[in-house]
Amino acid sequence: MTQTTARPHAAVLGGGVMGEALVTALLAAGWTADDVDVTERSAARAMELSGRYGVRAADPNAKAVKGAGLVLIAVKPQVVPDVLTEIAPTLRPGTLVVSVAAGIPVAVYEAALPEGTPVVRVMPNTPALVGKGASAIAPGTHATDEHLDLAERALAATGLVVRVAERDLDAVTAISGSGPAYALYLIDAMAEAGVLLGLTRDLATRLAVATVEGSAALAAQTGDHPVVLRERVSSPGGTTVAGVAQLDAHGVRAGVVAAARAAYDRSRELGAAAAPSPRGDR
Ligand SMILES: NC(=O)C1=CN([C@@H]2O[C@H](COP(=O)(O)OP(=O)(O)OC[C@H]3O[C@@H](n4cnc5c(N)ncnc54)[C@H](OP(=O)(O)O)[C@@H]3O)[C@@H](O)[C@H]2O)C=CC1
Ligand SMILES: O=C(O)[C@@H]1CCC=N1
């Protein structure tokens, strides 16, 4: 059965950073609090989310998915196999399973869940919390365009959502999934430099945040290549070329590439660890 209801009852499994972002996204996209259940390992955290958003703190996972037409998995990758074992017996036919877990291949979900279960993998990022996220979604074997549409409706309030093939998700994870940490690392470094040069920390941080936000907006709104935009900041013989030469001298570009490569490799490792063993004896 294909689940195409506009806003089916949703169960968010795992109410950590990303689970909370998904709960807020659903509510912002028009789901009512009555239509969203959230499960957690710790009852205190589940109650916290329930108190904050009015959603139902439901447990265990097997019970939460019983009445759901949309299940969103937001536990750590290492916990995904156990959660799939828990929910497989009670998942309704046709319920769309959406997972944000890094690295875990669609094949792992499809092997553990009832035959024909539609699965969509999502790689979101934390700016989703303020509607400025970037998410990529990839369909499993049984996910139709309608299932992708439903996943997009669920993510509508989080920001940019793009459709990709599953093979691209490790790279997406390395760039936009982990990317906010790289950007925030830069902001922190710029603010720290401002303090070193005599600004107050508050002023330096505000300037660094506004500068990175403004630069991103400039790139997004003009569509100009980042190098062209960078050249416009760089007056001949001026301050910017002096500064950027130091970024090159300190290998910052190479560091960013190495960071993304390491995140990509880690995403693949997480997937390999969760994959059924060749002997099929997991
Ligand atoms: N944070 C991010 O920027 C992004 C994260 N993701 C993915 O989102 C997923 C969650 O990450 P994140 O939110 O950062 O991690 P968190 O640790 O913040 O959230 C996971 C939550 O799941 C809870 N949990 C553990 N076991 C169960 C269970 N059996 N049933 C229900 N809940 C359970 C954890 O509780 P406890 O802490 O008590 O174990 C925790 O609160 C990961 O798979 C990650 O790859 C994807 C993109 C970006
Ligand atoms: O660090 C992680 O593993 C998750 C996935 C992408 C961002 N955070």
From TrEMBL:
Enzyme Commission number(s) of this protein: 1.5.1.2
Cytoplasm listed as a keyword: yes
A single GO molecular function term of this UniProt record: pyrroline-5-carboxylate reductase activity
Family (UniProt): Belongs to the pyrroline-5-carboxylate reductase family.
Gene Ontology cellular-component terms listed: cytoplasm
InterPro entries found in the cross-reference section: 6-PGluconate_DH-like_C_sf, NAD(P)-bd_dom_sf, P5C_Rdtase_cat_N, P5CR-like_CS, P5CR_dimer, Pyrroline-COOH_reductase
NCBIfam families: proC
Main location, first listed in the record: cytoplasm
Superkingdom of the source species: Bacteria
UniProt domain Pyrroline-5-carboxylate reductase catalytic N-terminal: residue ranges: 11-103
Gene3D superfamilies cross-referenced by the UniProt entry: NAD(P)-binding Rossmann-like Domain, ProC C-terminal domain-like
Gene: proC
Biological process per Gene Ontology, one example term: L-proline biosynthetic process
Binding-site list for NADP(+): L13, G14, G15, G16, V17, M18, A74, V75, K76, P77
Catalytic activity: L-proline + NADP(+) = (S)-1-pyrroline-5-carboxylate + NADPH + 2 H(+); L-proline + NAD(+) = (S)-1-pyrroline-5-carboxylate + NADH + 2 H(+)
Protein name: Pyrroline-5-carboxylate reductase
Binding site for NADPH: N61
UniProt domain Pyrroline-5-carboxylate reductase dimerisation: residue ranges: 166-270
HAMAP family in alphabetical order: P5C_reductase
Pathway(s) of this molecule: Amino-acid biosynthesis; L-proline biosynthesis; L-proline from L-glutamate 5-semialdehyde: step 1/1
Function: Catalyzes the reduction of 1-pyrroline-5-carboxylate (PCA) to L-proline.
Compartment list: Cytoplasm
